[in-house]
Amino acid sequence: MKTFHVEVMNESEEELITKILENLKQKGMINFFENHNDAASSKPVSASEEQVQEIIDEAELGPYYSEKEAKNILNL
Description:
Layout: H1 14-26, H2 39-42, H3 49-58, H4 67-73
């Protein structure tokens, strides 16, 4: 199975492209869904202190580096 990302270049053709995809879906040839990329969800979110500690623990840097050094190494 392959996954493709389809970008409609011309907004006026969006309805036609959607109808074509729906037709192929009805025939059982493909499955598709609209991906909603909200600007708010694509912004980076700061990790909580608990998450930072978990990342440092999983990287096994704790025994060898201070917390500050580990954060710098991991770009946290």
